[in-house]
Amino acid sequence: MTGLNLDLSGKRALVTGGSRGVGAATVHLLARAGADVGISYRSRADEARRVVKEARALGVRSWAEAGDLSDRATAGRLFRRVDEEFGGLDIFVGNAGIWPVADIPLSEMDDGRWHRTIAVNLDSIFFTTREALRRMSDDGRVVLVSSTAGQRGEAYHSDYAASKGAIISLVKGLCTEVGARGITVNAVAPGWIDTEMSEDALQGEDRAAIEAAIPIGRVATAEDVAGPIVLLCSPLARHITGEILNVNGGAVLVG
Questions:
Q1: Within a 13 Å sphere around the CA of 236, how many CA atoms are in the beta-carbon half?
Q2: What's the pLDDT band for 101 if we cut at 50, 70, 90?
Q3: What's the pLDDT at 6?
Q4: Which runs of consecutive H residues, i.e. helices, occur in the chain?
């Protein structure tokens, strides 16, 4: 392979949680690279329509499907849409998830918060990745979004850390299962990202303290994370599988 090749023309991609933040930025970059892109979203219809419109303006096919992917039947409906629109899949980006804002020690965490976090962050990944692999072409790409918290834990957010750590283990096992077909399975592990999901935590002195703990000295943008995701979807990463790509400005290396 000679030169740089980020051309994804003709590839069929699906991005979950694609209406905002990292998901929307990933959709934009995939479309710029020439991939057709479907997105899932939970409730933000206006934002989803905007993302689809912007992707179509780049000359690719794009569509959006609403639903809670922690429900198996809803995940199945999303992939029936994949069948109708694309007839198969080459790229799957599992990005949908939540980060509960409230700090709660495990000893005081109720069942509801635990089960909701695991359902949205992990069950949805199971349901959607399973469906994606049933439709994926040989030499396809699976990229799942984990977190620094999945590697080193996160006090008072043990539910979130557990869900993201499980994704890392899933990647490690799954890459071996599908490697003979040329399918690669990787994860990105972001740290703090300047998106709506984390905006309450990134205020005033709290933000300054967070940035001081990041060796590179700043919080990531959504585009900072989307770029490595698309790299893993490209021919440049064809021999990378089972890896966790840290996109956290070095934060995972410090206390």
A1: 14
A2: confident
A3: 86
A4: 21-32, 45-57, 72-85, 111-118, 124-135, 149-152, 158-178, 204-212, 222-233
Strand partners, 52: none
Question: Using alpha carbons only, what angle is made at residue 239 by residues 30 and 183, rounded to the nearest 5 degrees?
Answer: 65
**Which pair of structure tokens corresponds to residue 138?**
């040989």
Task: Dig out the tokens for 199 from the structure.
Answer: 């905006």
Instruction: From the candidates 41, 99, 127, 160, give the one annotated as an active-site residue.
Output: 160
For 180-228, the pLDDT digits (tens) are: 999 999 999 998 777 666 666 666 667 777 777 777 877 889 999 999 9
Mean pLDDT of 41-64: 96
What pTM does this model have?
A: 0.93
Residue 189: per-residue pLDDT: 94
CA dihedral of 63, 68, 69, 74, whole degrees rounded to 10: -80
CA atoms within 13 A on the CB side of 59: 6
Instruction: For residues 234 and 255, give the distance between their C-alpha atoms in angstroms, rounded to a whole number.
Output: 33
Q: For residues 171 and 39, what is the distance between their CA atoms, to the nearest angstrom?
A: 21
Kindly report the backbone phi and psi dihedral angles of residue 201, in degrees, each rounded to the nearest multiple of 5, phi listed first: -80, -15
**Residue 69 vs residues 78, 116, 120: alpha-carbon distances, Å:** 8, 12, 7
Q: Is 160 a catalytic residue?
A: yes
Where do we find the tokens 């490595």? 228
Distance CA 76, CA 59 (A): 28
